[in-house]
Amino acid sequence: IFIYFFSEGRSVSLVPGIRSSKWNRKAVILLYWSGGSSVENGRPPDPADWAVIDVVNYFRTAGFEEQASAFQEQEIDGKSLLLMTRNDVLTGLSLKLGPALKIYEYHVKPLQTQHLKNNSL
């Protein structure tokens, strides 16, 4: 299972080849089932358990095809992703500023927040 966040007004693909209409909310959480992943204790698997390829696929599916390769090149797995600071994303991955800001604000930061929330219960 992957959790995806999409910003306001952005079309998203729920099923490959099928586009949804634009969302009116600021952020939407989508659950994406793949590879027979299971839910443990009523929760999706922790991003801390993601391998590098899971992180890459997360960003590809979220619409950051070009930027996803930077996570592979830098060998960013789930644990590393959850440790990333805003500065790491903006400068450490050598991404263009616009996509880097979106990746951090709409993806990395919410995943970190959700991870902390799930692990403090």
From TrEMBL:
Gene3D superfamilies referenced in this protein's UniProt entry, alphabetically: Transcription Factor, Ets-1
Domain SAM, chain residue ranges per copy: 50-98
InterPro entries per UniProt: PcG_chromatin_remod_factors, SAM, SAM/pointed_sf
Highest taxon above the source species: Eukaryota
Name of this protein: THAP domain containing 10
Gene field: THAP10
